[in-house]
Amino acid sequence: MSSPVQQFKEQAEVLTHDLRHREIIQTALRKYEVVRDKSRGAFRDYRSARQAAAETKWEAVNHLDKYLAQFAGKLEARGTKVHWATTGEQARDIIMGIIRGKKARSIVKSKAMTSEEIHLNHALEHEGFEVVESDLGEFIVQLRKETPYHIVFPAMHLTRGDIKELFNRELNSNSTDNPEELTMVARRVLRQKYIHADVGFTGANFGIAETGMISITENEGNARLTAALPKTMITLMGIEKVLPRLEDLALFLPLLATSGTGQALTGYNTMYGGPRQPGECDGPEEYHVVLLDNRRTELLADPEQRDALHCIRCGACLNVCPIFRNVGGHTYGTTYSGPIGSVITPHLRGLQDWKHLSFSSSLCGACSETCPVKIDLAHHLLQNRRNASQEKPSFFWKTGFKLFSFIFNRPGLYKFIAPLGRIGQKLHPFVKGTKLDPAYAWTKTREAPKIAEQTFKEYWKGRS
Amino acid sequence: MTEREKIFARIREALTVPAPLPGQHDAGHHAPASGTPSAQAREWLPPVGDSFEDQLARFRANAADLKATFYFCNSRDELAKLLCELRDVEGWKKIASHTGELTDAACKMLGLPVSHTDQKFDANELEASDAGITECDALVAQTGSVLVTNRSAGGRALSVLPPHHVVLARREQLLRDLPAAFELLKKKYAANYPSMISFITGPSRTGDIERILVLGAHGPKKLTIFCGP
Predict the structure, then answer these.
(1) Which of A109, B31, B68, B217 could be bridged to A201 by S-S, CB 3.0 to 4.6 A?
(2) Between chains, do B210 and A281 touch, taking CB under 8 Å as contact?
(3) What is the DSSP letter of B19?
(4) Hey, which residues 69-108 in chain B have their CB within 8 Å of chain A?
(5) Contact A253/B142 with Cβ under 8 angstroms?
(6) What number is the ipTM of this complex?
């Protein structure tokens, strides 16, 4: 198997030349940009809202012990079973244990990036359970045996024609490529799944410490159904998702919608505070919340980048990122792609294996500028580069700078070496565009800049 | 040590070193005020007028944008007439609802077989109902949302499983904005919150295929809101 960096380079090479892929992504994101700007513009004071969201998240993350304890305590007081998992494996075991204990066969899931993080579907299917993703985009990528392309728009890389073929092949449907017709095919299949599923599984967008609730944001109603019909409900949530107060949602729900999909408010924003309570007429008999660390505490221990835990997974930074828009979501090979993925993946999976993501950045800063909770992503990419080089300086880096300082400390030597460049460039056409070219990485797609006819020293001496 | 204790130990250890305050990369920022940074949300969110008429107009405009149908009725008779028209146009054969002052009156008037979710109900039967008629906790002018809880709206499934969700609200339930909705929730339920609280903003929708809007992805294809006297 190739290393993450090789895989990234190979796929990026393919996709940056793929004009069809580029057209699909650009079209989808242009639509997003239009509505996002409209929703942002509707705010009375978007800048202050953003600053307040950053401060609220800062407060929550920097007092995580307090708010997490409060969150879990409140949930438990109303009959929810709260589980704690340090690793993805532990979380999988806990979830598997609950499902086995219920003698369940079928599980209906609403969208949860945390479950991608711990490779839950694979583990459940391996054990012979039936797992169905109910979010339309997730359902589509599940049928294709792919991972989500984007954390908010999982199937944004596919056209209606691709989806028509997929449904006709996998579901024996006889649909045209009309998006409405295709959506109805999925609706018919999934409705029966909700009614017959033994377990409903969800993620969480926020956890409310004050009242002990999770909050789920969605458009389709699939999470609503997942949390209504099956007898057992399980939520997997990263420990960093807590917000202090219920009314914080008055700010975070519109911000998430605006940044995530460009809507003023997403279709369903629902808070769940436990299993069916006495006097309530439906809902799950049992409710389990699994809280996942999975190296989030390591990120917490880095004060410089702790604010990466403020992320509300809206995907706004992916949408504006020139790298994401050209190499595409799958190329990253990570659960979380785009700028936020490039920042946090080295913390979650190892710096040296994933540092290349921080180097594939144009440093344009669009991500920092768009983030609704003001995470300085572009700066964190630089910090990852610095940390990677300090931890394990590359041979070329070290020798390159040694050579540089050796030459630049010796004016005589410099004077001798500086004109060599323009002589070398005269020979360049012989190797240009071939693998023998020492500047191949640059010249295969670009013209090399022309070196001046005289050095500065020569010019200075020659001026009358 | 349990896993819980281990996680808390790591968190406390990590937090011994303070992190810089947020938004520092923007010049001219000062430390967060103590207390609740998001408490002033009303000052930043989209503006809504003070008068009832302003708020009604805002709700109406939002509902239209969201492709929900909204009727404001000045009398119970008007509401009854509109509701019966809807029944006839859509050809409802059976409906689902829950016990409540507004819903009971509506069901009686419609004269159709009703499955009640307050009693033991079958999900298949609910799915096959032509409409789910519920009350709500509030209407939110700012966003065009209907605020329901499983206590006010007949449980968790009734407002999402039938293909058409019909909401019956009272005039005084129209609220200005999201902060007002959360205030209401606290005032009404703080002693014992319902296990489900939901802001429903338009009918179920998706844009997962080429970002093209399709209504009725999983939940109701139609949302009709009646605001009566």
Answers:
(1) A109
(2) no
(3) P
(4) 98
(5) no
(6) 0.95
* Secondary structure element (H or E) that encloses residue A234, with its range: strand A232-238
Decide: helix, strand or coil at residue B165: strand
Whether B206 sits inside 8 A of A227 (CB atoms) is: no
Q: What is the pTM of this model?
A: 0.93
**Helix, strand, or coil (residue A288):** strand
* Distance in angstroms (rounded) separating the CA atoms of residues A233 and A216: 13
Q: Are B144 and B59 in contact (CB under 8 A)?
A: yes
The CA distance from B203 to B142, in Å, is 17
Residue B215 forms beta bridges with which residues?
A: B205
The third-level CATH classification (topology) of the domain covering B50-202+213-228 is Rossmann fold (3.40.50)
Please, are residues A243 and A52 in contact by the beta-carbon 8 Å criterion? no
H or E stretch including A153? none
Q: Which residue has the tokens 């589509």?
A: A140
- How many CB atoms lie under 10 A from the CB of residue A27? 14
| Chain A interface mutation, best of B120, B156, B189, highest count of A Cβ atoms under 10 Å | B156
Number of Cβ atoms within 10 Å of the Cβ of A136: 27
CB contact under 8 A, B11 and A297: yes
E-only strand ranges, A98-182: 106-109, 130-133
Chain B environment of A155 (Cβ under 8 Å): 208-209
pLDDT values of chain A reduced to their tens digit, one per residue, 464 residues: 579 999 999 999 999 999 999 999 999 999 999 999 999 999 999 999 999 999 999 999 999 999 999 999 999 999 999 999 999 999 999 999 999 999 999 999 999 999 999 999 999 999 999 999 999 999 999 999 999 999 999 999 999 999 999 999 999 999 999 999 999 999 999 998 999 999 999 999 999 999 999 999 999 999 999 999 999 999 999 999 999 999 999 999 999 999 999 999 999 999 999 999 999 999 999 999 999 999 999 999 999 999 999 999 999 999 999 999 999 999 999 999 999 999 999 999 999 999 999 999 999 999 999 999 999 999 999 999 999 999 998 888 889 999 999 999 999 999 888 888 888 888 888 887 787 888 888 888 888 888 888 888 888 988 87
- A225 CB neighbours in chain B (<8 A) are 157, 160-161, 218-219
What is the distance between the alpha carbons of residues A242 and A388, in angstroms, rounded to a whole number? 30
Say whether B216 and A52 touch across the interface (CB within 8 A): no
Top residue of B44, B129, B215 to mutate, by most chain A CBs within 10 Å, is: B44
* Nearest Cα residue in chain B from A51: B23
- Superfamily (CATH) of domain A60-294: NagB/RpiA/CoA transferase-like (3.40.50.10420)
